[in-house]
Amino acid sequence: MNLPESAFLHRLLNRPRDSHKYDFGRVLVIGGSLPMAGAPVLAGRAALRSGAGVVELCVPDCVVSVAAGFDACLISHGLPSDGSGCFSPDGMQALRALAARADVVVCGPGLGRSPGLVPIVEALWRELPQSMLVDADALYALSGLDAGSLAEHDGPRILTPHAGEFNRLLGRQAGSKPDRAALECSAADFAHRVGAVVVLKGQHSLVADGARLTHNASGNPGMATAGTGDVLSGIIAALLAQHLPPGEAARIAVRVHGLAGDAAAEALGELALTANDVIDFLPDVWRRLQQESAPGFTA
């Protein structure tokens, strides 16, 4: 059923009065490493602020106490870590068990680039039957696979690369800079061949789902700061957990992410804007969208 965006938003923003948390999905964020314990927290907090019912973090045990201390609403699990402060392959069985009970899995924020992570990420990409969003260092872990291999997966997949990460996925040399139009054509083709949604981040981010291309108009240069991509991953995951189709979840999330960034920039200025500010303004954006979708509303 191909509903317009307004219909998905209406369903998202008008909850039944007898709802409980599991109606709105369980999101698992897999990420974190010794230098980047906060990245999965940003994704998790954004998912909570976008309506996910339960959000869990899966991080290396060496940083679990740090990650757990950021937000009491997040459930944190620590799995075995290696000598570099990243996940160890020894924790794969426990990781599979955590992922099995989630509705949506986010993999990548702050994950690191230990060689042992590559088979972990590749296995999750192939095996998980539920929706999986891959970002940041998990994209790096997948960059050794060609499009044919990436097309072999069991569930819905969303990739959220910036230009450099996408070039690496395509097997191009580091520093390669094709023009944006050419990159977007490649993203559309890649989405079709892999059977995934590709969110090519940047000014006027492109969402390609294999059938439709959409450019986003919201956002500002103040959002070019560490962690805002993790926030976007969390928003998309929350919408997936609330049963939006992957393409619609990505399109709405990219728009809302930019609107929250615009609201933050208006209040705080672009120069001082941080990823946490984008999260803090998400409630205002969702509330405004709810008001605009109400019967009889006039701008």
Structure description:
This protein has a single domain, classed as 3-Layer(aba) Sandwich (UDP-N-acetylmuramoyl-L-alanine:D-glutamate ligase). The chain is 44% helix and 13% strand. The chain has twelve helices and nine strands. Helix 1 (5-13) crosses helix 12, helix 2 (39-48) packs across helix 10 and helix 6 (136-142) packs parallel to helix 8 (163-169).
SSE inventory with pairings:
Layout: H1 5-13, E1 26-30, H2 39-48, E2 54-60, H3 64-68, E3 75-79, H4 92-100, E4 104-107, H5 117-127, E5 131-134, H6 136-142, H7 147-150, E6 157-159, H8 163-169, H9 180-194, E7 197-200, E8 206-208, E9 213-215, H10 228-241, H11 246-268, H12 275-293
Helix pairs in contact: 1-12, 2-10, 5-6, 6-8, 10-11, 10-12, 11-12
